[in-house]
Amino acid sequence: MPAELTFAAPRRAKPPRHLADLSPQERKDAVTELGEKPFRAKQLAQHYFGRLESDTSGMTDLPADARERLGEALLPKLLTPVKHISCDGGMTRKTLWKAFDGVMFESVLMRYPERATLCVSSQAGCGMNCPFCATGQQGLTRNLSTGEIVDQVVACARDLERGNVSGGPGRISNIVFMGMGEPLANYKRVLEAVRRITDPVPGGLGISQRGVTVSTVGLVPAIDRLIAERMQVRLAISLHAPDDELRDELVPVNTRWKVDEVLDAAWRYADTTGRRVSIEYALIRDINDQAWRADLLGRLLKGHLAHVNLIPLNPTPGSKWTASRPEDEREFVRRLEAHGVPVTVRDTRGQEIDGACGQLAAQN
C-alpha cells in the first residue's frame, strides 16, 4: 500500500476512560471496582445520557462521598470548547474542541425548521489526503475515542436543550459522521459511538439509527463489516468523481479500491438494509463538474437505491479548488435527473465561519 494510504494513527497517549467508552456491563464492573453497588452505573448513565449532565456534584441520588470519586473515574472532562462561532442568523454553529492532549477538532450544529443536525468528527485530522479538503491536508493526528465522539453530541445536545443556541430550546434529531476524519478508518470506536448515540436511555442517547449517517471515501472491507452489523444507519459515499482517472487524484484511496468496487459495496449495503445510499459529490469548478461526468455518474447510479447530494465546494483560503459556476451546477443536476437519479444540492451553510471541516482547527 502506498505510504499516503496508511490508515493507522500515530501512537499517542490515550484519552481518559469515560462512561461513554463502556458497555452497560462494563459500567457495572467499573463502579463495582470503585466499591459501589452495580446499580450506580445506571444512575450515572441516566444523568449523562438522559439528562445530558456530566457534573456529578449535582447528582443528589448518588452518595455524597462517592460523587467526586465516580466523576473522576467515569465522567472525566474530555473536551474543552475553545470557541463557538455562528452564522445563518445563529442557525449554524461551529465549535472548536480541545482534547486532553491539546489536539483540536470540530463539530457543526445546523438547525432547520423541522430538525437539528450535528456533524461530528471521528478523528483529529485525516489520513485520506484528498487535496481539496482542508482536513485532508492536515494529515492524521490520531483517532478520537468513543467517549470523545459521543461527548461532542452530549455537549451540543445539552446546549440545544437548555436554549443556549439561537432559536430556543430543541433536540438533536440527526447525527452525521461528516466532520474531520474518515469514520471507517476508526471503525471500532465509531461503531461503539453509534451504539451509544442510538441505544435507548440509559444505555445511550436514544436517537434513531435512521437519523444517523456514516460517511466514507470508500473503504470497501469496512463497508462490508458495516453491512454485517445489520444496523439501520445511512451510508454516505464520498465519491466526487465517477471515473477512476480523476478519482485517483481527488480521493487517493481510489488507487486501492476503484469506483466500481466502492459502488458495488454500496449496493450490497442498500440491498441488505433497504436504505438508500447517499452519494456525496463536491462540485469543483472545471475539475469534476463537466456535463459528460454527470452523464457518466447518472449511468453508474441509474436503477440503484441511491441519492446524489451535490455539494458546492466550500473553498479553503489560498486553494486552487473552488465552487462550480451556477450554470454548470444547474446542468449537472439536469443531466442526473434525465437519468432518473434523485439529486439535491446541499444547503451552503457556514461559508463565513470557515465552514469547510478542518479550517478552524488549522487556524488554531
Automatic annotation (TrEMBL):
Organism classification:
Bacteria, Bacillati, Actinomycetota, Actinomycetes, Streptosporangiales
Q: Which cofactor does it need?
A: [4Fe-4S] cluster
Q: What is its EC number?
A: 2.1.1.192
List the SMART domains hit by this protein, alphabetically. Elp3 (SM00729)
Show the SUPFAM superfamilies listed in the entry.
Radical SAM enzymes (SSF102114)
Swiss-Prot/TrEMBL keywords: 4Fe-4S, Cytoplasm, Disulfide bond, Iron, Iron-sulfur, Metal-binding, Methyltransferase, rRNA processing, S-adenosyl-L-methionine, Transferase, tRNA processing
Q: What protein name is recorded for this chain? A: Probable dual-specificity RNA methyltransferase RlmN
Q: What is the primary gene name for this protein?
A: rlmN
Q: Which NCBIfam families match?
A: rRNA_mod_RlmN (TIGR00048)
